[in-house]
C-alpha cells in the first residue's frame, strides 16, 4: 500500500512531539488511543493511564529521531519505525522504536509503541 507523504510527515511530527512532550497535556493525551499499549525497553507493558503522569513530568532531555520509515498497513493503520537517541549525549544508547498509529474517526492516534535498546 502506498504512503501518503502528508500522512507520513504528520505522524513523524506527532511522534516527535510525544517523544519530547511538546504541547499541552490535553493535546498530548489526545494523540494517544484509549487502548494504547507500550512495551518499553525493559519488556514492561505500559497503558495510557500510566503514560499520562509521564507526560506531566518535566524533562530536560531532548530525543532525536532518525531513519524514519513508514508503511500504511491498511487505510486506518500506519506503522512507523525509527532510531532515537538523546540529543546532548552522543554516546547514549540508541533505541529502535516501532509505533502503530490508527485512524479513529478521522483522527490518527498512537495505539502501540515498542522500544528496543541497541
Automatic annotation (TrEMBL):
Looking at the record, the residues that make up the DUF4440 domain are 22-110
Which positions are tagged coiled coil?
A: none
Family matches, as InterPro entries: DUF4440 (IPR027843), NTF2-like_dom_sf (IPR032710)
Q: Pfam family example for this protein? A: DUF4440
Q: What is this protein called?
A: DUF4440 domain-containing protein
Organism listed in the record:
Legionella shakespearei DSM 23087
Amino acid at each position: 500500500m502506498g504512503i501518503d507523504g502528508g500522512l507520513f510527515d504528520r505522524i513523524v511530527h506527532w511522534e516527535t512531539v510525544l517523544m519530547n512532550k511538546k504541547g499541552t497535556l490535553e493535546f498530548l493525551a489526545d494523540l494517544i488511543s484509549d487502548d494504547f499499549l507500550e512495551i518499553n525497553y525493559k519488556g514492561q507493558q505500559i497503558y495510557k493511564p500510566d503514560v499520562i503522569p509521564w507526560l506531566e513530568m518535566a524533562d530536560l532531555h531532548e530525543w532525536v529521531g532518525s531513519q524514519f520509515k513508514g508503511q500504511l498497513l491498511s487505510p486506518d493503520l500506519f506503522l512507523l519505525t525509527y532510531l532515537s537517541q538523546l540529543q546532548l549525549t552522543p554516546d547514549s544508547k540508541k533505541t529502535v522504536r516501532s509505533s502503530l498509529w490508527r485512524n479513529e474517526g478521522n483522527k490518527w492516534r498512537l495505539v502501540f509503541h515498542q522500544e528496543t535498546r541497541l
